TrEMBL record:
InterPro entries: Hexapep (IPR001451), Transf_Hexapept/Carb_Anhydrase (IPR050484), Trimer_LpxA-like_sf (IPR011004). Keywords: Transferase. This is Transferase hexapeptide repeat family protein. The keyword Transferase applies. It comes from the Bacteria. GO terms for molecular function: transferase activity. The keyword GTP-binding does not apply. Pfam families: Hexapep. Coiled coil: none annotated. Gene3D superfamilies: Hexapeptide repeat proteins. SUPFAM superfamilies: Trimeric LpxA-like enzymes. It comes from Sediminibacterium roseum.
Length: 199
């Protein structure tokens, strides 16, 4: 669902995939190989939203701002299910955990990781490679090379997903029984704990 607002029509690169149950409104620019999941609300009515190449905004996320602010998700940003980004700037290759909330004028440097359910107060600034968790959120340590490698591999799955959706996604009627030859999906990626032998 792509909507104009006043004189602004969203700009969406042809390689991006915006789910039809997402709502993209007004002054929004979506770059190459971006994935926007169902239920996402990306509302550029009072200000701008720029989602740079290779980023993903997953299911039920909200991106908005106070009037006159531009929200920027820099290249390879990874916004987990249900997160809220309100007027923030997200650095390159950051990971925002599920249901995290980033308030107005928050600035994250490159390669930060924000834990699930974290709440970052307005005007907070975090330097690059900060691991940020809690309510209110605080930096607890530096993000390691291993963490960034793990994050980057996960984001690559989402960068491939738009093309896969364009090729294979379609509306269907449900089956009424489980077929005997139903395929088994490949486990392409492991959680951080599994990757590091922590269970």
């Amino acid at each position: 669902m792509i909507y104009a607002f006043k004189d602004f029509i969203p700009v969406v690169h042809e390689s991006a995939f915006v789910h039809p149950q997402a709502a993209v409104t007004g002054n929004v620019i979506i770059g190459r190989n971006v994935y926007i999941g169902p239920g996402a609300a990306i509302r550029g009515d009072w200000g701008g939203i720029v989602i740079e190449d290779g980023s993903n905004v997953q299911e039920n996320c909200t991106i908005h701002m106070f009037p006159g602010i531009t929200v920027v998700l820099k290249e390879n940003s990874h916004i987990g299910h249900g997160a809220i980004i309100h007027g923030a700037t997200i650095g390159r290759n950051c990971l925002i955990g599920m249901n995290a909330v980033l308030m107005d004028n928050v600035v994250l440097g490159d390669e930060c990781i924000v834990g699930a359910l974290s709440f970052i107060k307005a005007y907070e600034v975090f330097e690059s490679r900060s691991l940020v968790v809690g309510n209110p959120a605080k930096k607890i340590k530096e993000v390691t090379d291993e963490m960034i490698q793990w994050k980057t591999e996960g984001t690559k799955l989402y960068q491939a997903l738009p093309n896969e959706m364009h090729l294979h996604w379609k509306e269907v009627e449900p089956l009424r029984e489980i077929p005997a030859n139903r395929a088994i999906q490949e486990a392409m990626y492991k959680t951080w704990n599994e990757t590091n032998g922590e269970k």
